[in-house]
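User: Could you go from structure to sequence for me? I need the amino acid at each position, not a summary. Structure tokens:
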């Protein structure tokens, strides 16, 4: 079956059928839906390879995530793929595993696939080697979860969120608060959250900074238990992500600590799994699906206009506090989600 037959059935021109498949933004939603419906009725399948040769467009975007293990990125990718599908795009998602060399390989593979644009989460925007190949890109791109004034980004203000959180804890009487994070050198998100913690410590007389850095997640339970045994005066653990907070919950409970009476534990991300725990995890909640949707929306406009995004296009989305049950104070001064 040919596009001529589709045009006849849909009562539109052949050019309109072509635009419906190749440039959906140039036809009305109603017309495109009618064309696609008639194509479906006669079993027509658009040849993506042939279209790419004609238009130099593949209608595919590339997505690089740092891990497939954190549910944050599942929620985020759902936002991207849904938005992309509605706009007539497919997605190619690859994992860099927080390795700089693998980031380069992933980018190369995405570019070899002739994607029309890129949504990237890089390990650390402060690493010149890591960002040299990003700066050289000749197709539109946007960074997600990274927050750097030199690049177009979609994220939340993690630093400010941690500052507000720790300030609320100190106002409630906590004077021994430890920040728990993964290997700081690996993730600029963890670095920014730790800096927010330090900002609050600096403005809280008598509060001393305490950092528990866990390079390998497999050893987290033993490290956390050892730390709690050696620092029994600690009353709150502020974690750089929810997965670490969940491990802190388990380690503390195995030591017989009552949560939150003996120890408050707060995560960061607000993943759905945290709401299923007992006690329910308290966490700073980020709008992960919306980060994906907004990232695609910015990229889509850039691809339509054949322009690059700039730092002026950066979008910082609001975060909220998921009260949960693992923290013994109500964060009345923070954006709240029950």
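Assistant: Here is the amino acid at each position, in order:
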């Amino acid at each position: 079956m040919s596009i001529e037959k589709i045009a006849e059935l849909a009562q539109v021109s052949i050019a309109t059928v072509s635009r419906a498949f190749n440039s959906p933004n140039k036809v009305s939603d109603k017309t495109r839906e009618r064309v696609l419906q008639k194509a479906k009725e006669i079993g027509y399948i658009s040849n993506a390879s042939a279209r790419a040769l004609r238009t130099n467009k593949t209608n595919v975007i590339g997505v690089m995530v740092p891990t497939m293990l954190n549910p944050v990125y599942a929620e985020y990718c759902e936002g991207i793929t849904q938005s992309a599908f509605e706009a007539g795009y497919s997605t190619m998602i690859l994992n860099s595993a927080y390795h700089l060399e693998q980031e380069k390989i992933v980018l190369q593979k995405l570019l070899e696939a002739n994607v029309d644009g890129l949504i990237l989460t890089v390990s650390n925007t402060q690493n010149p080697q890591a960002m040299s190949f990003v700066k050289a890109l000749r197709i539109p791109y946007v960074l997600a979860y990274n927050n750097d004034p030199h690049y177009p980004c979609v994220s939340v203000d993690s630093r400010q969120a941690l500052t507000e959180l720790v300030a609320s804890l100190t106002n409630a009487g906590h004077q021994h608060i430890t920040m728990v994070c993964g290997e700081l050198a690996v993730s600029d998100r963890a670095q920014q959250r730790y800096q927010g913690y330090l900002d609050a410590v600096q403005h809280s007389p008598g509060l001393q900074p305490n950092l528990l850095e866990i390079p390998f997640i497999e050893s987290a339970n033993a490290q956390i238990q050892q730390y709690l045994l050696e620092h029994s005066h600690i009353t709150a653990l502020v974690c750089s992500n929810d997965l670490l907070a969940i491990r802190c919950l388990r380690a503390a409970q195995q030591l017989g600590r009552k949560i939150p009476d003996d120890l408050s534990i707060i995560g960061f991300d607000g993943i759905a799994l945290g709401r299923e725990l007992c006690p329910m995890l308290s966490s700073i909640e980020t709008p992960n699906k919306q980060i994906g949707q907004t990232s695609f929306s910015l990229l889509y406009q850039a691809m339509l206009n054949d322009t690059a995004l700039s730092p002026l296009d950066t979008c910082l989305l609001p975060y909220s506090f998921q009260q949960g049950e693992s923290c013994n104070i109500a964060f009345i001064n923070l954006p709240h989600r029950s």
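One structural detail worth keeping in mind: The chain has twelve helices and 13 strands.
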